[in-house]
Amino acid sequence: MSSAFTVSSCVTVVVVSDGPVFITAFAEWSLKGCLLVWSTRLLVVTRLPLPELQHLHKTFSMTNSMLLVVDDTISRRFTSFFF
């Protein structure tokens, strides 16, 4: 009897949400559940203001994560990346 395993060394998780509770819960659950290891990349896309996301800095800094903040309040779309 033989078993076949598929191993992916390049996984990217994209989370799109404007809910601070969801983003916080996802980040904490992912860290505790070992979803966010260095071989896994996380991209969080949100319209939340950066001050509302400051508390996630420590969690995201311990993982291979990037935060994309989209600001629709100005006449042209503005996007910020944070590592």
TrEMBL record:
Keywords: Receptor. It comes from the Eukaryota. This is Putative olfactory ionotropic receptor IR4-like 14. It comes from Homarus americanus. The lineage of its organism: Eukaryota, Metazoa, Ecdysozoa, Arthropoda, Crustacea.
